[in-house]
Design brief:
By secondary structure, the protein is an alpha+beta fold. The protein contains 16 helices and 12 strands. Among the domains are: 68 residues, Histidine-containing Protein, Chain: A, CATH 3.30.1340; 84 residues; 101 residues, Alpha-Beta Plaits (2-Layer Sandwich). 52% of the residues lie in helices and 16% in strands.
Length: 471
């Protein structure tokens, strides 16, 4: 009967080959690991203590262990018994550390099968306290012998720390290197810290305390990481202050808007940006917020466009109304001629055509809101005098059961009578002629004077530098 070979699809064939490859590689890896361990053990003869150069025997092993323990004061009372390669340790030691030391030494001998622990831990005061006192005395003696080296190391640390301090106080150097005062102070402080660290490293190297130096540096790194997470917001604000001092996004007395906050810039400090609001109040915004916010600077470009809406009756010609209003706006003395004022039809309603007037003005010569108010007034007056009607709200009133009554309610009759009052008489009753104070569009300098007074009185460091370009 012929032997049928099962057919495998490509996927099963790939899995089979992969399994075989993994099995072979695993076996080869185990063999290589065993050979490596054997080579390491053969190459490191120090890990095994030879009991005798020739044939090993139980008495020889016992004698070898006893001789080793005899050289160690703390293990002198340990008793050793060896039978068929099994080492039994008994006797007394002062603490667990000495017992473990005895066990580890016995296990290192060649020919040992196992080590049984029958040692008694006495935990006596003399056996535990006196060795510590002896170690302390020995260390104290070594330190007393090494005091000249300690003095030299301390002197190196002090000299380097003093040199870093003096170098950090070299204000002229750091002001020449750094772009502003804040960064100059930061670089000076970094130099002081760097010199102290260099002095500490050299002092520890001179005393041979390289292990202690590694411990200190490792602990300082972990401590710095923990502090960094704890003061993350403060560090973000500090870095934002550095970036703002480098980028210089605004000048003192600039009229800016930061998110929903508006005012004039007083100063940029290492922690916050101080604004004088248009109400005359101090506003302190953290620099981290300023750096991530959208900043609108009104002062950066002196020309600013104003716009307003006026409506005319749907029966009037809107093009003629636009021309009339624009002629009036052009006649304003402080209005910018180029670009010229423009107007567009914004919306057309049932009874009103809304026209948007736009014009440019110079903020250094005129106040924006005063100029806008004046432009609205002159355009409105020109349109009215040109015969155009500024529409009023229309209301449709439905009257029922009005037999025997007047066809017009008293309120409507009063409104009609008021509407028929001559224009001059209505103007005399409802308003007064504009005076020079109302028509004055000169800039309001009061907030600017408050900012200048604040900058002259405060002693805070200002990071704004008028000699550097604004980003």
């Amino acid at each position: 009967m012929p032997f049928d070979v099962p057919r495998l699809n490509p996927f099963q064939l790939v899995l089979t080959l992969l399994f075989c490859a993994l099995s072979i590689s695993g076996a080869l890896a185990q063999q290589a690991l065993a050979q490596s361990l054997a080579q390491d053990q053969a190459a490191d003869p120090s890990s095994v203590i030879e009991a005798a150069p020739r044939e090993l025997a139980d008495p020889t092993i016992q004698k070898r262990i006893e001789d080793i323990y005899a050289q160690i004061d703390t293990l002198a009372k340990v008793e050793v018994s060896v039978q068929q390669g099994v080492v039994i340790l008994s006797g007394q030691v002062s603490n667990e550390a000495q017992a473990q030391k005895a066990l580890s030494l016995a296990k290192r001998l060649e020919g040992i099968v196992t080590v049984e622990d029958e040692i008694e831990r006495t935990l006596d005061v003399e056996g535990n306290v006196i060795p510590i006192l002896d170690q302390f005395a020995a260390k104290l003696t070594r330190w007393m012998k090494a005091w000249p080296l300690v003095v030299v190391s301390s002197l190196v640390l002090v000299l380097l720390a003093f040199a870093g301090h003096r170098l950090g106080r070299w204000t002229a150097l750091w002001n020449r290197i750094a772009p502003n005062v804040f960064l100059a102070e930061l670089m000076a402080q970094a130099m002081r810290i760097a010199f102290v660290i260099i002095g500490l490293v050299l002092a520890l190297n001179l005393m041979g305390a390289t292990t202690l130096m590694g411990t200190i540096l490792g602990g300082a790194g972990l401590l710095g990481l923990a502090i960094g997470f704890a003061v993350r917001d403060a560090m973000e604000n500090y870095i934002s202050s550095i970036m703002l001092s480098l980028r210089q996004p605004f000048r003192a007395n600039d009229h800016i808007t930061i998110n929903e906050h508006e005012g004039k810039v007083v100063r940029l400090t290492s922690r916050a940006t101080i604004l004088m609001t248009l109400d005359g109040n101090h506003l302190r915004i953290p620099n981290a917020t300023v750096y991530k916010s959208v900043i609108l600077n009104y002062t950066r470009n002196p020309e600013r466009r104003l716009e307003f809406n006026l409506g005319v009756d749907a029966a009037d010609d809107p093009i003629a109304a636009m021309a009339t209003g624009l002629d009036a706006i052009r006649d304003i003395a402080d209005m910018v001629v180029d670009p010229a004022p423009t107007a567009i039809i914004k919306t057309v309603g049932d009874s009103t055509i809304v026209i948007t007037f736009m014009a440019w003005m110079d903020q250094t010569k005129s106040d924006f809101w005063k100029m806008r108010s004046l432009a609205i007034k002159v355009a409105k007056d020109a349109i009215e005098h040109g015969g155009f009607t500024l529409p009023e709200p229309l209301y449709r009133v439905r009257l029922e059961n009005v037999s025997g009554r007047s066809a017009m309610p008293q309120s409507a009759a009063d409104s009609e009578a008021t509407r028929n009052v001559p224009e001059e008489e209505s103007r005399q009753k409802t308003g007064h002629a504009a005076n020079d104070t109302v028509l004055d569009v000169s800039p309001d300098r009061h907030i600017e004077e408050m900012v200048n007074d604040e900058r002259s009185q405060s002693g805070d460091t200002d990071l704004l530098d008028s000699t550097r370009p604004v980003e």
